[in-house]
Amino acid sequence: MRTLCASTLIGEFFVIGFAGLVAMKDDSLSLTTVWTVCGVAMLLSVLLCGLITRPGGLQLGWALQIALIASGFVVPVMFFLGATFAVLWWASLHYGRKIDEAKARWAAQAEAAEAEAGQPG
Length: 121
What we know:
The chain is mainly alpha-helical. Helix content is 82%, strand content 0%. It has four helices and no strands. The protein has helices at 2-23, 31-51, 57-70, 77-118. Helix 1 packs antiparallel against helix 4, helix 2 (31-51) runs antiparallel to helix 3 and helix 3 runs antiparallel to helix 4. The radius of gyration is 20 Å and the shape is elongated.
C-alpha cells in the first residue's frame, strides 16, 4: 500500500507545482499567497509519503485530496485533476491493502511449507 500511495502523492507534488504556475497568472492573487499555499501543499504531499503507515496519515492524505479538489475554485482544471487524484488515492489504498494481504498470505504459506519440509517424515 505504501508504494502505491507514495507514487500518488509524488504525482500530486508535481501537479500542485504546475497549478501554482497557472495560479500565478491570476492578478487577484499575490505571488506570496500562491507559493505559500502551493509550497505547504507540496511539502505535505512529500511528508505524507513517510507518514502513510502512521496513525492519521491516511486521513491527512484524504484532506490533501479534498484540498486539491477545492483548489479548482482558483484554477478550474484542478476540479478535474483533484477528482482524478482522489480516485487514484482511493485505488492506492484499496488495491494496496489487497496486495499487502496477498503478500502476507504468500509469506505464511511459504513459512508453513518450509516448516513442513523441515519435519522428519
